[in-house]
Amino acid sequence: MQKNRSIVNILDLSTDEIQHLIETANDIDKNPEKYQEKCRHRKLATLFFEPSTRTRLSFEAAMLELGGAVLGFAGASSSSAAKGESVADTIATVSNYADIITMRHPKEGAPVVASEHTAVPFINAGDGGHFHPTQTLADILTIQRTKGRLEGLTIGLCGDLKFGRTVHSLIDAMLRYPGNRYILISPVELRIPEYETEKLEKAGVNYVETTDLEAAIPSLDILYMTRVQKERFFNEEDYVRLKDIYILTPEKLRNAKEDMAILHPLPRVNEISVKVDDDPRAKYFYQTLCGKQMRMALILYLLGLE
Q1: Is 107 an active-site residue?
Q2: What's the pLDDT at 131?
Q3: What are the boundaries of each domain within the chain?
C-alpha cells in the first residue's frame, strides 16, 4: 500500500502512472473476473459533503466490483460536520475505520487539509471550483479509447470555464501531452480563469478564446461540454441569463468531424439536446463507464493490490 498517498490534483499522478492506470482499466474491461476479489476485506469510505450521483456511485460500484465494502455519507447534514466538526477531525477519525478514503467538499482546499490528516490513501472527489482528478482520469481514458492517442488533438471546452473544476483539471492533465491545441468557448462572464491561461502560455501551447461554439466545431477532435453551474452563482439573475447560452443540437454538428468525440462530465441540464444522444460521437455515457474502471484501477494502485 502507498501509505498516506493522496491524490488531490491530477498532477499528483505522473504521466507514467496515468498510463499504468489506463492499462489496468483496459485489463479490467477485458477480464473483470480477475478483479472480483482483489479488495476483499478492504473498506472504502465515501465522504460526500456535497451532492453527487455519478462520482459517489462510481466509487462505490468500483469498490464493490473489486470485492470490497463501502461506508460513508452522502451529505454534510448526515455527518458530524452539521455539529461543527472540522475536515481534519473527520478524516483523522475515518482513517481508523477505512483502508482508503474519497471525499467531495464544496470548499476549495479542503482536500489539502484532508491529505495532511489522513493515515490511509486519500482521493479528492471534487472540491468547489478547484480540482476533480478522478473525473479527469475518466476523461483521459475516454479520449484514449475513442481517439487512440492523447497528443496532437484539437480540444474544445465549452460552457462554464470559470467555475468548471473538470475543465481546469483536464487542461492541467492534457498540457503534459505534446501537440494539443485548445479552443476555449464561453461567455465573457464565465471565461477561463487567468491562472489557467497563464499555464497555457507558459507551456507555449496554441489556444484561442471565443464565444462562438458553431464556428469552433468543424476543427475539433474533442468537444467537452459543461453545464452552467447554478450552485456557483450568487446572483439568480446571472444564472438564468447564462444557463442556456450554449445548447448542442444535431444541427450544430452538421459540420463536425465524423470521428469527433463529445464528452460531458455530467450532470447534463440543457446544454446537450437529448437528440444528440443517438449520435455515435456522443461519448458522455460511455465516459461514466470509463470513470468507474479508472477508479477501480486507482483504488488498486493506491492499496498496492494489483
Answers
A1: no
A2: 82
A3: 6-131+291-303, 134-288
Position with higher pLDDT, 298 vs 106: 298
Q: For 200-227, what is each residue's pLDDT tens digit?
A: 999 999 999 999 999 999 999 999 999 8
pLDDT at site 81: 58
- Domain range 134-288, its CATH number among 2.60.40.10, 3.40.50.1370, 3.90.660.10, 3.30.930.10: 3.40.50.1370
Catalytic site residue from 5, 42, 56, 104: 104
Domains 6-131+291-303 and 134-288 share a fold: yes
- Identify each DSSP E strand in 232-302 by its residue range: 261-263
Share of the chain above pLDDT 90, in %: 77
Is 102 one of the annotated active-site residues of the chain? Answer: no
Phi-psi region for residue 97, left (φ > 0), alpha (ψ -120 to 50) or beta? alpha
| CB-CB neighbours of 203 under 10 Å | 13
pLDDT of 229 strictly over 80: no
- Catalytic option among 54, 147, 181, 257: 54
User: In terms of Cα–Cα distance, which of 136, 147, 170 is closest to 298?
Assistant: 136
Q: Is 254 a catalytic residue?
A: no
Yes or no: say if 217 and 223 are a contact pair by the CB < 8 Å rule.
yes
Angle at 219 between CA 216 and CA 225, to 5 degrees: 55
Catalytic residue among 38, 42, 46, 55: 55
pLDDT at 83 over 60: no
Q: Name, in order, each residue with C-beta under 8 angstroms of 219's C-beta and a sequence gap of 6 or more.
A: 154, 183
6-131+291-303 CATH fold: Rossmann fold (3.40.50)
Mark whether 15 is an active-site residue.
no
| Residue written as grid cell 499555464 | 199
**pTM for the whole structure:** 0.92
The per-residue pLDDT of the chain, averaged, comes to: 92
